[in-house]
Amino acid sequence: MTEAAATHPVADPLSSTGPFSLTSSDPSYGGFSRFELELEFVQALANPFYLNHLASQKLLQDSAFIEYLKYLQYFTQPEYTRYLSYPGPTLKALELLQQEKFRQEILSPEIVARLAEETLLSSIRAK
Known about the structure:
This protein is an all-alpha fold. Helices cover 56% and strands 0% of the residues. Residues 1-6 and 15-24 have low confidence and may be disordered. The protein has helices at residues 3-6, 34-44, 48-56, 63-71, 78-81, 87-96, 100-105, 109-126.
């Protein structure tokens, strides 16, 4: 089990009941739980144009941001993957972002275009 996985209990983080439920004592960020914000963010990573934007802002070179991407690996576990709207492209992007070479190459418009086409084709096949 990864360190990130160890920090997330196996439970329904959006449940209103149970030992790991989100209660009024849980931190809230603009009315959303940390899990909801992380879910929204990790799903945004499936967008190659957004990845290009992150790279152009030099976030993909920032060691703290890279550690955050490692932390988000907990979404690869089935109990969290089930919350992803598009698990294929989301998990692929999360995997690619673990590679330094990809974090550099995503600045290339050709790489962005190829990934966008692959993402579009995979979403068409999924229908």
